[in-house]
Amino acid sequence: MSTPTTPGIRRQRIRRRVKVIVATFLVLLLLAGAAVWKFGPRYGVYLVPPSPAAYADAALGIMDGGYYTTGESWRTARAQAVADTRDAKSYAETIPALRRAVVVAGGHHSKVMDSGKGLDEAMPQRPLPTLRSAGGITTVVVPEQAVSDKAFKQTYADTLANGIASSRTATTCGWIVDLRHNHGGDMGPMLAGLSALLPDGNLVGFKDRSGTVVWETLEGGTVSQGGQVSMAVADAAKLSQPIAVLQGPDNGSSGEATVLAFRGLGHARSFGAPTAGYSSANQVRSLYDGTQILITTAVDVDRTGKTWNGGPVPPEQSADVDTAHKTAATWLNTQCHR
Protein backbone atom coordinates (compact mmCIF):
# COMPACT_ATOMS: atom_id res chain seq x y z
CA MET A 1 0.00 0.00 0.00
CA SER A 2 1.44 3.38 -1.06
CA THR A 3 1.70 6.38 1.23
CA PRO A 4 1.38 10.09 0.29
CA THR A 5 4.60 11.70 -0.79
CA THR A 6 5.99 14.67 1.14
CA PRO A 7 4.74 17.18 -1.51
CA GLY A 8 1.30 15.54 -1.33
CA ILE A 9 1.16 15.93 2.45
CA ARG A 10 2.15 19.57 2.12
CA ARG A 11 -0.62 20.22 -0.40
CA GLN A 12 -3.18 18.61 1.93
CA ARG A 13 -2.02 20.78 4.83
CA ILE A 14 -2.20 23.93 2.68
CA ARG A 15 -5.74 23.03 1.57
CA ARG A 16 -6.81 22.49 5.18
CA ARG A 17 -5.30 25.83 6.20
CA VAL A 18 -7.02 27.61 3.32
CA LYS A 19 -10.33 26.04 4.30
CA VAL A 20 -9.87 27.14 7.93
CA ILE A 21 -8.96 30.67 6.84
CA VAL A 22 -11.95 30.90 4.47
CA ALA A 23 -14.32 29.49 7.09
CA THR A 24 -13.01 31.91 9.71
CA PHE A 25 -13.37 34.82 7.29
CA LEU A 26 -16.96 33.84 6.47
CA VAL A 27 -17.84 33.58 10.17
CA LEU A 28 -16.32 36.98 10.86
CA LEU A 29 -18.14 38.42 7.86
CA LEU A 30 -21.45 37.04 9.09
CA LEU A 31 -20.83 38.40 12.60
CA ALA A 32 -19.89 41.80 11.19
CA GLY A 33 -22.98 41.81 9.02
CA ALA A 34 -25.17 40.90 11.99
CA ALA A 35 -23.60 43.69 14.04
CA VAL A 36 -24.16 46.22 11.25
CA TRP A 37 -27.73 45.01 10.82
CA LYS A 38 -28.46 45.41 14.54
CA PHE A 39 -26.42 48.48 15.52
CA GLY A 40 -25.53 50.18 12.24
CA PRO A 41 -28.75 52.19 11.88
CA ARG A 42 -27.95 54.03 15.12
CA TYR A 43 -24.83 55.36 13.38
CA GLY A 44 -26.31 55.92 9.92
CA VAL A 45 -25.05 52.62 8.44
CA TYR A 46 -27.55 50.40 6.61
CA LEU A 47 -27.27 47.14 4.67
CA VAL A 48 -30.71 47.64 3.08
CA PRO A 49 -33.27 50.46 3.24
CA PRO A 50 -35.13 50.17 6.57
CA SER A 51 -38.87 49.80 6.84
CA PRO A 52 -40.68 52.79 8.40
CA ALA A 53 -40.90 50.92 11.71
CA ALA A 54 -37.18 50.11 11.60
CA TYR A 55 -36.46 53.72 10.66
CA ALA A 56 -38.34 54.85 13.76
CA ASP A 57 -36.54 52.27 15.89
CA ALA A 58 -33.18 53.63 14.70
CA ALA A 59 -34.31 57.15 15.64
CA LEU A 60 -35.38 56.00 19.09
CA GLY A 61 -32.04 54.25 19.50
CA ILE A 62 -30.33 57.60 18.94
CA MET A 63 -32.68 59.23 21.43
CA ASP A 64 -31.77 56.61 24.05
CA GLY A 65 -28.54 58.57 24.47
CA GLY A 66 -30.45 61.69 25.52
CA TYR A 67 -29.79 63.47 28.81
CA TYR A 68 -33.28 62.77 30.24
CA THR A 69 -33.68 59.08 29.37
CA THR A 70 -33.08 57.52 32.78
CA GLY A 71 -36.60 57.81 34.18
CA GLU A 72 -40.10 56.46 33.71
CA SER A 73 -41.10 59.42 31.51
CA TRP A 74 -38.77 58.28 28.75
CA ARG A 75 -39.76 54.62 29.02
CA THR A 76 -43.39 55.63 28.64
CA ALA A 77 -42.70 58.04 25.77
CA ARG A 78 -40.54 55.49 23.98
CA ALA A 79 -43.17 52.77 24.20
CA GLN A 80 -45.78 55.20 22.89
CA ALA A 81 -43.55 56.16 19.95
CA VAL A 82 -43.04 52.49 19.08
CA ALA A 83 -46.81 51.94 19.13
CA ASP A 84 -47.45 55.08 17.08
CA THR A 85 -44.96 54.12 14.33
CA ARG A 86 -45.49 50.36 14.18
CA ASP A 87 -47.89 50.53 11.21
CA ALA A 88 -46.43 53.59 9.47
CA LYS A 89 -46.42 53.34 5.69
CA SER A 90 -43.65 55.89 5.10
CA TYR A 91 -40.80 57.60 6.92
CA ALA A 92 -42.76 60.85 6.91
CA GLU A 93 -45.57 59.23 8.88
CA THR A 94 -43.17 58.48 11.75
CA ILE A 95 -41.95 62.06 12.18
CA PRO A 96 -44.76 63.45 14.41
CA ALA A 97 -44.31 60.62 16.92
CA LEU A 98 -40.51 61.01 16.82
CA ARG A 99 -40.81 64.74 17.45
CA ARG A 100 -42.93 64.09 20.52
CA ALA A 101 -40.42 61.54 21.78
CA VAL A 102 -37.24 63.59 21.23
CA VAL A 103 -38.42 66.38 23.52
CA VAL A 104 -38.83 63.85 26.35
CA ALA A 105 -35.44 62.27 25.68
CA GLY A 106 -33.44 65.47 25.30
CA GLY A 107 -35.57 68.36 26.50
CA HIS A 108 -36.54 71.49 24.60
CA HIS A 109 -33.10 71.88 23.00
CA SER A 110 -33.63 68.65 21.05
CA LYS A 111 -35.49 68.29 17.78
CA VAL A 112 -36.05 66.27 14.63
CA MET A 113 -35.15 68.50 11.70
CA ASP A 114 -37.25 68.70 8.56
CA SER A 115 -36.21 66.07 6.01
CA GLY A 116 -33.33 67.29 3.87
CA LYS A 117 -32.83 70.37 6.05
CA GLY A 118 -29.66 70.32 8.12
CA LEU A 119 -28.10 72.93 10.37
CA ASP A 120 -26.57 74.85 7.46
CA GLU A 121 -30.03 75.33 5.98
CA ALA A 122 -31.67 76.03 9.35
CA MET A 123 -29.15 78.84 10.06
CA PRO A 124 -28.18 79.95 6.53
CA GLN A 125 -26.50 83.28 7.28
CA ARG A 126 -22.71 83.48 7.41
CA PRO A 127 -21.95 86.59 9.48
CA LEU A 128 -18.38 87.30 10.52
CA PRO A 129 -17.29 88.98 13.75
CA THR A 130 -16.91 92.76 13.72
CA LEU A 131 -14.92 95.10 15.96
CA ARG A 132 -15.19 98.81 16.67
CA SER A 133 -13.02 100.94 18.98
CA ALA A 134 -14.12 104.22 20.56
CA GLY A 135 -13.04 106.04 23.71
CA GLY A 136 -10.54 103.36 24.68
CA ILE A 137 -13.20 100.61 24.56
CA THR A 138 -13.36 98.01 21.81
CA THR A 139 -16.67 96.28 21.13
CA VAL A 140 -16.35 92.76 19.73
CA VAL A 141 -19.56 91.50 18.10
CA VAL A 142 -19.54 87.69 18.13
CA PRO A 143 -22.29 86.29 15.86
CA GLU A 144 -23.57 82.73 15.63
CA GLN A 145 -21.36 80.18 13.87
CA ALA A 146 -23.50 77.37 12.48
CA VAL A 147 -21.70 76.68 9.20
CA SER A 148 -20.17 73.23 8.73
CA ASP A 149 -17.59 74.41 6.19
CA LYS A 150 -14.16 74.08 7.85
CA ALA A 151 -12.57 76.86 5.83
CA PHE A 152 -15.28 79.30 6.89
CA LYS A 153 -14.91 78.26 10.53
CA GLN A 154 -11.21 79.06 10.35
CA THR A 155 -11.93 82.38 8.65
CA TYR A 156 -14.41 83.22 11.41
CA ALA A 157 -11.89 82.42 14.18
CA ASP A 158 -9.03 84.25 12.46
CA THR A 159 -11.21 87.32 11.81
CA LEU A 160 -12.02 87.51 15.50
CA ALA A 161 -8.46 86.84 16.73
CA ASN A 162 -6.82 89.18 14.23
CA GLY A 163 -9.36 91.90 14.97
CA ILE A 164 -8.58 91.73 18.70
CA ALA A 165 -4.84 91.80 17.97
CA SER A 166 -5.26 94.85 15.73
CA SER A 167 -7.33 96.65 18.37
CA ARG A 168 -4.85 96.31 21.25
CA THR A 169 -3.37 99.79 20.86
CA ALA A 170 -6.76 101.50 20.64
CA THR A 171 -8.13 99.59 23.63
CA THR A 172 -6.79 101.59 26.54
CA CYS A 173 -9.71 100.85 28.87
CA GLY A 174 -11.42 97.52 28.22
CA TRP A 175 -13.46 95.22 26.00
CA ILE A 176 -17.15 94.64 25.36
CA VAL A 177 -17.95 91.16 24.04
CA ASP A 178 -21.40 91.38 22.46
CA LEU A 179 -23.17 88.00 22.34
CA ARG A 180 -26.74 89.34 22.45
CA HIS A 181 -27.71 87.95 19.05
CA ASN A 182 -25.54 84.84 19.01
CA HIS A 183 -27.95 81.91 18.53
CA GLY A 184 -25.21 79.28 18.77
CA GLY A 185 -23.59 76.76 16.46
CA ASP A 186 -19.97 75.66 16.80
CA MET A 187 -18.36 77.29 19.81
CA GLY A 188 -14.82 76.26 18.82
CA PRO A 189 -14.27 79.19 16.41
CA MET A 190 -15.87 81.61 18.90
CA LEU A 191 -13.63 80.61 21.81
CA ALA A 192 -10.47 80.33 19.71
CA GLY A 193 -11.12 83.78 18.26
CA LEU A 194 -11.61 85.19 21.78
CA SER A 195 -8.59 83.34 23.19
CA ALA A 196 -6.58 86.50 23.91
CA LEU A 197 -9.36 87.59 26.30
CA LEU A 198 -9.61 84.23 28.08
CA PRO A 199 -7.17 82.51 30.46
CA ASP A 200 -5.71 79.13 29.59
CA GLY A 201 -7.35 76.14 31.27
CA ASN A 202 -10.96 75.05 31.62
CA LEU A 203 -13.43 77.37 29.89
CA VAL A 204 -16.80 75.62 30.10
CA GLY A 205 -17.80 72.03 30.82
CA PHE A 206 -20.51 69.65 29.66
CA LYS A 207 -21.93 67.21 32.22
CA ASP A 208 -23.65 64.07 30.93
CA ARG A 209 -26.40 62.16 32.69
CA SER A 210 -23.86 60.02 34.56
CA GLY A 211 -22.26 63.14 36.04
CA THR A 212 -19.10 63.00 33.95
CA VAL A 213 -17.87 66.46 32.88
CA VAL A 214 -15.95 66.99 29.64
CA TRP A 215 -14.20 70.37 29.54
CA GLU A 216 -13.66 72.77 26.69
CA THR A 217 -10.09 73.90 27.38
CA LEU A 218 -7.78 76.60 26.09
CA GLU A 219 -4.01 76.58 25.63
CA GLY A 220 -2.62 79.63 23.89
CA GLY A 221 -4.81 79.97 20.80
CA THR A 222 -5.91 76.32 20.72
CA VAL A 223 -9.32 75.18 21.93
CA SER A 224 -9.79 71.48 22.68
CA GLN A 225 -12.54 69.24 24.02
CA GLY A 226 -11.71 65.89 25.57
CA GLY A 227 -8.17 66.15 24.23
CA GLN A 228 -9.33 66.73 20.64
CA VAL A 229 -8.52 70.09 19.04
CA SER A 230 -11.69 71.99 18.11
CA MET A 231 -10.10 75.10 16.59
CA ALA A 232 -6.80 76.97 16.72
CA VAL A 233 -5.59 80.47 15.88
CA ALA A 234 -2.16 82.06 16.11
CA ASP A 235 -1.10 82.33 19.73
CA ALA A 236 -1.24 85.87 21.11
CA ALA A 237 -0.36 87.49 24.42
CA LYS A 238 -3.21 87.44 26.91
CA LEU A 239 -5.02 90.68 27.71
CA SER A 240 -5.88 91.49 31.32
CA GLN A 241 -8.12 94.54 30.84
CA PRO A 242 -11.68 94.46 32.19
CA ILE A 243 -14.29 92.74 30.03
CA ALA A 244 -18.03 93.37 29.82
CA VAL A 245 -20.12 90.61 28.26
CA LEU A 246 -23.50 91.49 26.71
CA GLN A 247 -26.25 88.86 26.70
CA GLY A 248 -29.99 88.58 26.13
CA PRO A 249 -32.92 86.35 25.18
CA ASP A 250 -31.65 85.89 21.60
CA ASN A 251 -28.44 84.44 22.99
CA GLY A 252 -28.67 80.61 22.90
CA SER A 253 -26.92 77.25 22.90
CA SER A 254 -23.16 77.56 22.29
CA GLY A 255 -23.67 81.32 22.47
CA GLU A 256 -24.72 80.76 26.07
CA ALA A 257 -21.71 78.51 26.63
CA THR A 258 -19.50 81.35 25.37
CA VAL A 259 -21.14 83.64 27.94
CA LEU A 260 -20.29 81.06 30.60
CA ALA A 261 -16.66 80.93 29.45
CA PHE A 262 -16.29 84.39 31.06
CA ARG A 263 -18.04 83.44 34.33
CA GLY A 264 -15.82 83.30 37.39
CA LEU A 265 -13.25 85.74 36.00
CA GLY A 266 -12.58 88.56 38.44
CA HIS A 267 -12.14 91.16 35.69
CA ALA A 268 -15.28 90.22 33.69
CA ARG A 269 -18.95 91.07 34.23
CA SER A 270 -22.08 90.28 32.19
CA PHE A 271 -24.87 92.75 31.39
CA GLY A 272 -28.33 92.45 29.86
CA ALA A 273 -31.11 89.91 30.35
CA PRO A 274 -31.37 86.14 30.87
CA THR A 275 -30.33 84.06 27.88
CA ALA A 276 -32.67 81.90 25.78
CA GLY A 277 -32.37 78.84 28.02
CA TYR A 278 -30.49 76.30 25.87
CA SER A 279 -27.40 75.93 28.06
CA SER A 280 -26.77 72.35 27.01
CA ALA A 281 -24.80 70.35 24.46
CA ASN A 282 -26.28 68.49 21.50
CA GLN A 283 -25.17 65.73 19.20
CA VAL A 284 -26.32 65.71 15.58
CA ARG A 285 -27.15 62.30 14.09
CA SER A 286 -28.59 61.41 10.69
CA LEU A 287 -31.28 58.90 9.74
CA TYR A 288 -31.41 56.84 6.55
CA ASP A 289 -33.08 59.56 4.44
CA GLY A 290 -30.82 62.35 5.70
CA THR A 291 -33.20 63.64 8.35
CA GLN A 292 -31.14 64.93 11.27
CA ILE A 293 -31.81 64.50 14.98
CA LEU A 294 -30.42 67.00 17.46
CA ILE A 295 -30.32 65.29 20.83
CA THR A 296 -29.17 66.91 24.08
CA THR A 297 -26.63 64.71 25.85
CA ALA A 298 -25.13 67.09 28.44
CA VAL A 299 -25.74 70.34 30.31
CA ASP A 300 -23.36 73.28 30.72
CA VAL A 301 -21.06 73.75 33.70
CA ASP A 302 -19.10 76.97 34.29
CA ARG A 303 -15.54 77.17 35.62
CA THR A 304 -16.81 77.63 39.19
CA GLY A 305 -18.51 74.22 39.01
CA LYS A 306 -22.05 75.57 38.77
CA THR A 307 -24.34 73.40 36.62
CA TRP A 308 -26.87 75.32 34.52
CA ASN A 309 -29.19 72.37 33.73
CA GLY A 310 -30.07 73.58 30.25
CA GLY A 311 -31.87 76.68 31.51
CA PRO A 312 -31.42 80.44 31.05
CA VAL A 313 -28.23 82.11 32.25
CA PRO A 314 -29.02 85.34 34.12
CA PRO A 315 -26.70 88.35 33.74
CA GLU A 316 -24.53 89.43 36.62
CA GLN A 317 -25.98 92.91 36.22
CA SER A 318 -29.46 93.37 34.76
CA ALA A 319 -29.84 95.98 32.03
CA ASP A 320 -32.20 96.73 29.19
CA VAL A 321 -30.93 94.64 26.28
CA ASP A 322 -31.04 97.56 23.84
CA THR A 323 -29.06 99.87 26.13
CA ALA A 324 -26.82 97.26 27.74
CA HIS A 325 -23.86 98.49 25.70
CA LYS A 326 -24.05 101.93 27.34
CA THR A 327 -24.39 100.36 30.81
CA ALA A 328 -21.38 98.14 30.14
CA ALA A 329 -19.27 101.06 28.91
CA THR A 330 -20.09 103.02 32.06
CA TRP A 331 -18.94 100.09 34.20
CA LEU A 332 -15.73 99.67 32.18
CA ASN A 333 -14.84 103.31 32.71
CA THR A 334 -14.97 102.73 36.47
CA GLN A 335 -12.74 99.67 36.22
CA CYS A 336 -10.05 100.50 33.72
CA HIS A 337 -6.63 101.95 34.45
CA ARG A 338 -5.64 104.03 31.46
Plain-language structure description:
The structure is a single chain. The chain is α/β, with parallel strands linked by helices. Among the domains are: 48-107; 121-198 and 234-296 and 311-335, Alpha-Beta Complex (2-enoyl-CoA Hydratase, Chain A, domain 1), CATH 3.90.226. The chain contains 9 helices and 13 strands. It has helices at residues 6-39, 52-63, 72-85, 91-106, 119-122, 150-166, 187-193, 254-260, 324-335; strands at 111-112, 130-134, 137-141, 174-178, 201-208, 213-219, 222-225, 228-232, 243-247, 268-272, 280-286, 292-302, 317-318. Strands 1, 5, 6, 7, 8, 11 and 12 form a 7-stranded antiparallel β-sheet that branches. The chain has a 6-stranded mixed β-sheet with strand order 2-3-4-9-10-13, sandwiched between helices. Helix 3 runs antiparallel to helix 4 and helix 6 (150-166) runs parallel beside helix 7. The chain is globular. The protein starts with 5 loop residues before the first helix and ends with a helix. The model has no long low-confidence stretch (mean pLDDT 89).
Question: How is the secondary structure organized here?
Answer:
Layout: H1 6-39, H2 52-63, H3 72-85, H4 91-106, E1 111-112, H5 119-122, E2 130-134, E3 137-141, H6 150-166, E4 174-178, H7 187-193, E5 201-208, E6 213-219, E7 222-225, E8 228-232, E9 243-247, H8 254-260, E10 268-272, E11 280-286, E12 292-302, E13 317-318, H9 324-335
Organism: Tessaracoccus bendigoensis DSM 12906
Protein name: Peptidase family S41
GO molecular function: serine-type peptidase activity
